[in-house]
Amino acid sequence: MKKYLLKTGRLIYEHFLRKIFFLFDSEAIHLRLTDFGEMLGKIRPLTYILKFLIRFEDPMLGQSLFKIKFQNPVGLAAGFDYRAQLTQILPSIGFGFGTIGTITNSSSEGNSRPRLGRLIKSKSLMVNKGFRNPGIKNVLQKLNKLSFEIPIGISIGKTNTDKLTTQKQAIEDIVNAFKLTEKSAINFSYYELNISCPNLVGNITFYPPQKLEELLIEIEKLKLNKPVFIKVPIDQNDNETLNMLKIIAKHPIQGVIFGNLQKNRKDSSFDPQEILEYKVGNFSGKPTEKRSNELIKLTYRNYGKKLLIIGCGGIFNAQDAYTKIKFGASLVQLITGMIYEGPFIAAEINANLKDLLKDDGFKNIFEAIGINAKQTRWTREDSNAQGHFQPPTN
């Protein structure tokens, strides 16, 4: 019955609501819909009804990671809820976790318009927001009295301003945001450190190993009491990525997210005419999928017993998510898939993911992680001994 409701909801969205939404400017409709989501989250009887009708739960999908219980592996990626509006509605529409942000030390209006756009044939979004957000103090004040039903994390990055001209200033800016968050009473489950946004002003970069090391040394000094996951770019080659991972693995960083936006406008996944419509920004969705999967597999093979992997990029259905899981991702995140497939995508992915696991003979999602990476397979003994991946005890 629930699968029928989810499929019906997706078809209504695809054939009716999406056509209406896509008549409007991308950023304008995004702002209105997140406002609407925030309003719905405040109506408790409605969230309970939605949860009863929509949310799909099954012990097969549950995991305990760094003592955080994820009832399912599908999360909302950073970049969508950058005004911290959706923490109360996400559980009701099927998400297992969600990330606020990216949030910066100082507020920022982001880049000049256009900041968002659609590439319908390419199943992609043009993204040029440039960390548009109200700033860490405002976000913490807004969330101060809220509790979270699912794990909620916060993504932190460098303020998008030309006033930060040196590496030292940029690091101080990021560290200050972490300090304020750590001192707050907000019950975040994890942190994300976003070093990979390609749409920021200035020439500050944390990609070279030495500069990444400088940043992580300062982050390590904070002695953060929550897991930290780093969002990694997808435009670096394998050797460059491995060099970054080598530095990351030296520090108390618990995981990596692959990855961020597609910068290569000549990528074969783009419709060649459609891409010409946008002179600025970089691109999410299907154009990121292939490289994201390659880097998940690369990382799992080389650092699968050291770093948790979160797969992000091009997830539009359960098979897309399952592919990332089998390459080594313990969790997955999405945004663009929700824009194209509708707000119930997480619940539908989870319902179908259970069937995919059963078809392959797995009893829990943990058993499928990295099965197609060929190397670095975790065992339950490994996970329990090292306190990294811990299958749930249901």
Low-pLDDT runs of 5+ residues are 380-394
Query: What's the assembly state of these chains?
Result: single chain
The side-by-side strand order for the widest beta sheet comes to 3-4-7-8-9-10-12-13
The CATH superfamily bears the name Aldolase class I
CATH names the topology as TIM Barrel
What report would you give on this structure?
The radius of gyration is 20 Å and the shape is globular. Helices cover 39% and strands 15% of the residues. By secondary structure, the chain is of the alpha/beta class. An eight-stranded parallel barrel has the order 3-4-7-8-9-10-12-13, surrounded by four helices. α5 packs parallel to α6. The chain has helices at 2-21, 26-41, 44-54, 136-143, 167-183, 209-221, 238-249, 286-303, 318-327, 336-341, 345-359, 380-386; strands at 63-65, 68-70, 74-76, 97-104, 116-119, 124-127, 152-157, 190-194, 228-232, 255-258, 282-283, 308-312, 331-334, 389-390. It has a single domain, classed as Aldolase class I (TIM Barrel). The protein contains twelve helices and 14 strands.
Which helices and strands occur, and which strands form pairs?
Elements: H1 2-21, H2 26-41, H3 44-54, E1 63-65, E2 68-70, E3 74-76, E4 97-104, E5 116-119, E6 124-127, H4 136-143, E7 152-157, H5 167-183, E8 190-194, H6 209-221, E9 228-232, H7 238-249, E10 255-258, E11 282-283, H8 286-303, E12 308-312, H9 318-327, E13 331-334, H10 336-341, H11 345-359, H12 380-386, E14 389-390
Parallel strand pairs: 3-4, 3-13, 4-7, 7-8, 8-9, 9-10, 10-12, 12-13
Antiparallel strand pairs: 1-2, 1-14, 5-6, 6-11
Helix pairs in contact: 1-11, 5-6, 6-7, 7-8, 9-11
